[in-house]
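Everyone, carefully examine this protein record:
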Amino acid sequence: MSIDKIAPVKALGVATATLAGAWAIAAAYRHQRRLPLPPGPPEKSWMAGSADDIPTLFKWIKFTEWAKEYVDLFETRGQIYSDRPVRSMPFLMGWRDIASFRDNDSHFKTFRRHTSIGFSKKAVADYHDSLTKEVHILLQRLLRKSSDLNLELNRFAASFIMKVTYGYSIIGINDPYILASDEAFRSLIPAVTESYLVDSYPIIQYLPSWLPGMGFKRMAQEARKYPTKMAREPFEWTKEQIHRGNAAPSLVRRLLEENEDGEIGEEAIMWTAGSMYAGGAHTTVTAMNNFIAAMMLHPNIASKAREEIDRVIGTERLPAISDRVDLPYLECVLSETLRWQPPASMGEFSVVKPSHDNILQGPRGISSREAGG
């Protein structure tokens, strides 16, 4: 076929694909418009819905106003609204199996079951020695090199989570497993902080990559390797230690030992473990920074907590986990810090199944962000 004949054929293919995509988007939009929506602010446009009503700053003030205006929907109907809204870009980038992105489905329930096994009261007691050791290392390093507090807190959180999850002792903040995790998180940041058309219109992910506007597909394909590397490499390391007979107590070891019959599946265990670092490292550092800030802002509270520690424990040793029951004031200070500045905001909710009652009629899959249409 000559070049003169190829060009019209290619143009026809582009036009056909574009029209097909436009038709699919329009059909999905018409279907969504026919479904009843939860109460909320009226939409401003057919494309953005009520997104313009969400302020850029101090969002919680507006959300509190809406909560009072549109009645309580989540407290008494938690099972209905416990899904997560579909975010296509993180899924395309390989984060579908991390717990924070999962719906309230069988996979998420498996994750919950795993964590209840790995972090039961009996299991957590096995980690006390590791935690105490890491706390002592942190304090010694701060005494010797206190100029970079955040770096030391990050090293502490990473070290403890890797020890508890995999039985692995990191070699430092530049440990290869830590670097792999940080690289994975950096690749995820654009997917959760920026807006992609595919998040609003998931069907376009099935359009050809060579069409205009499909650059997100190439970006997602490049990023897919990072979460898998983050989850798989330390998991395989722990399996090797178990095989050699020298694995330290850890979440992965406990789950693998209880799964000798293969009922669960190693992939599920691998992603459960991967979710631990994903959900715990940065929130732990944030919580510790918030506590330090609170003590600097309220020196009178810090002084009372210190007085309680000196009275109960003395000055000859450091506090131990077993001392918590005898330090009620400090325990309340820690709890209040978490209430005052939660280390992570609540994620959006999504409807698990259609709800029909006097307050709400909403289709399955509608998210709290979309409540206004």
